[in-house]
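Anyone? Bumping this.
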Amino acid sequence: MFESQKHVFWQALLATILIFGLGLLIGFALEDARTSKISNMYTKSEIDLIDMRAQSDVYGIGTLDCGKVVEENIKFADRIYEEAKLLDKYQEASKLSDEIILEHKKYDLLRTLVWTNSIKIKQTCNASYHNIVYLYNYRNLGVEERAKQQVFSKMLQDLKDRQANNIMLIPIAADSDLASLNILLGTFNITSFPTILIDEKTKIENVENVTDIEQHL
Amino acid sequence: MKALVIIYLTFMFISMYFMFFFFLVHIRNRTKLFEHPPKTKEKTISIIVPAYNEEECLEGTVRTVLDADYPIEKIFIVNDGSTDRTKEIAQKLAKEFPSKVILLDKPNSGKAPSINYALKHVKSELFAIVDADSYPDKDAISKMVGHFDDEKVGAVTSAILVKNRGKFIQNLQVMEYVIMAWTRKLLDFVGGVWATPGPLSIYRKSAVDKINGFDESNMTEDIEVAWHLVKEGYRVRMCLAAHTYTNVPVKIKGWLRQRIRWDIGGIQTIGKYKSSFLKNGMLGNFILPFFVMSMFIGLLGVGVFVTQGLRKIIGAFLLTGYSYMANTQVLSLQDVYFAPSVLNFIGGLLLVFGFIFTVLGLLCFQEGKFAREKFFTLLLYGTFYLTVYPIILVIAIYKMAIKDIKW
């Protein structure tokens, strides 16, 4: 009797490998679809950024319409800020593949370009809006660091809701290992994270009331 | 891939394997679950009823056994130094049934020593152990005895079900006992029965004599004796058609004490038979690895759960503190947004399989109706009750570490 049952052991193993493998495949497909979505959003954003920089160059030949450039820059920054939030959610749910980390890195590079572009525009146009750069870590976070960064994100969201187009909000992961970003961090002497850098001058490293942050503007 | 993800996936793979294993055994044998071999020849049988402070149940148990449709040679009531009226009730029964009921009185020393003490008086081919708070069905013994026609069978156990119902904790145990009986029967089909529970199990006297009786140092002599018999080449069978109803703990404290004892006994048994790993037939190749794996999965689960749970609690505490400092909302819509991962997907699948598994087990008995009526209990059983097991295991390990081992 027992002899006739011994096949159950490997049959169960086979069934498990099949169902579990199917689950993993679906997981890979899901993560791949999300990475593709992020990748497409990135490509669109990258094209838009190049287009904006090209516009500046074209206007440079004639007269620069500062109002339009500033408006488009802030609109663009707002869009990639929303995309960054989605990217973070997807990255948190990404368990099997590390491809999304590469997308994150590409986005950080894009946001660094947006930042440098914004510095230039502010100088050229003597614009009155404020650059708010949020520098954070996203790898190997401790419990305290994670909680602190969550609150920083909320503080900045509140600030954006209050100030709207008066600020350009650019979140960048500082541990993306990007040479250009590292140079900027060195230039502004930013060594601890999270840090909020206001107009390339004021650094906020501790949790503060949004009203207090507004006073730095 | 992160180490934690690999741990989760391993955990899920092993759990899924065991679930499919049980599903497959059930599907292959679904028509044979309640089959039992017919009696071809009468075998003499005696009953041992170890009793310690059982004044409330003893008489009912003995009268139930006397009412069995199988001839009982003797009933040995072992009064294990009770401090209540147990001895008095046993004396009354011995007086009422002088040819059947024998009172063996001894100072308190535990269940296994009580059984071994009684075994010295047993002269029949078979003997059954019936806990003093358990009530076998009239036909339970006669359904089980046929198994002993196979000379390799050393013990046969029955389906233990819950007698005292009504309270919430009892209803949870109703489900638990049904699932235990069902899975034990499924293990029977592969020769993997690993325990002969006290409410009603029958043993071949010569087999138990060969292993020198029950281990008196073990907290769960019913697990140890089954392992020992399998090690010696005997088969341990399970008869799902034979029902025994037992009283289960009605208070959390009693329930917890019972479960800790089961776990301590299980660990003691693993320790005793660890050298049989991958040896001694089903014991080393299935029972021992199955037992160890179940405990390992439980401990791994509780380890990950506690670590991650603590991280979440500390994180939530810090987040609340920082949010207060920053005067921002603690929870926003953004936090509620949920992107499911592959772990959520496979975890969900396991939950569904687990639910089907439980319902399937309950439907095998009349308890299917009970499950429909007590759907909320079923939900709590699957989500909360089972998750407490590993925590109890941790407590048991702690108690063993500090040598706080008592019945």
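Late reply, but here is one note on the structure posted above: Chain B has a mean pLDDT of 91.
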